Amino acid sequence: MSKQLSINNLSSGYGRKNILKNANLVFEAGEFCALLGLNASGKTTLLKTICGLLKPAQGSCLYGDEDFLARNEKERARIVSYIPQRHSPMYGVSVLDVVMMGFNASLGFFMSPSPRDKEKADQMLNRFGLLAYRNTDFSSLSEGQKQMVILARTLLQNTPIMLLDEPDSALDFNNRHSMLEKVQSLIREENKIGLIAIHDPNFALAYCDRLILLLNGHITFDLKVANTSIEELTSCLAAIYGDISITQWKNQYIMMRNL
C-alpha cells in the first residue's frame, strides 16, 4: 500500500510569530496538489516546514507512520525534495554538476556519482531541452533556464514527496506549461506526492488534482477539482481573490477577474 503524507495540527513561523496555524492535511500518492493564496498567506512556510527548513512550533509531518522531521538532513532528503523560490548562487559550476547534485542524498561518504548516474543526468537534461548546456557555467544561464536545471536536479533526487515553491516564476508561457506537464506526468506515473505553491489559479486548475486554499495562515478550503462544481469553485476562490468568475471550456476551468 502506498504511504500517505499526513500534516497534523501543524503551526510554524519565524521567531515567535506563527505564520501557518493548525494545518491538517492528508496527501495520497499520485496526487498533484496546488497551494493557492495571496502573498504572506503561509504557502512557503508550509513547504519549508514539511521539508525541515523550519522547525514547527507544534504538530507533526508523517510519511506513513514515521515523523520524518526527526531524521537528519540527509535522511530527510531521501523522502522529501524541495525547490525554493530562489536558489543559492553558484559560480564556476557546470550545468551537469548542478543536476548531479540530485544524487547527493543517495550517495555515501566519499562516494561520487557513477557513469550510469551521469548518463541519467544527461537524459534528464535532454528531457528539458538543456543537454547542449551540460558543460555551460550554471551562473551564465537565464533565470528561466536555471529554474529548469534545478527542477531536473530535483527529479533526479527521486523522492516520494516533491515540494515546489513557485518553480514557474521565471518561466515564459510555453516553458511554464511544459514544466507543469512534466511534473504532473512524473507524479502520476511514479506514484509520488506533489505539492506546489503557485500564484496563477488557472495553471493550478489545469494541472493539479487538488486546490489547498490558504488565507492568513489558515487552510480555508481543500478542493478536489474533478469533484467540485463550478459554483463551489467560484465561491471558494472568490473568498481568496475577490470578485472573480469561472467558466468552463473543453472540460477546463478558467478563472477570470470581473472588471
Automatic annotation (TrEMBL):
The keyword Transport applies. Keywords: ATP-binding, Nucleotide-binding, Transport. PROSITE patterns: ABC_TRANSPORTER_2 (PS50893). CDD domains: ABC_Iron-Siderophores_B12_Hemin (cd03214). It comes from Aequitasia blattaphilus. GO terms for molecular function: ATP binding. Pfam families: ABC_tran. Residues 5-241 form the ABC transporter domain. The keyword ATP-binding applies. This is ABC transporter ATP-binding protein. It comes from the Bacteria. Gene3D superfamilies: P-loop containing nucleotide triphosphate hydrolases.
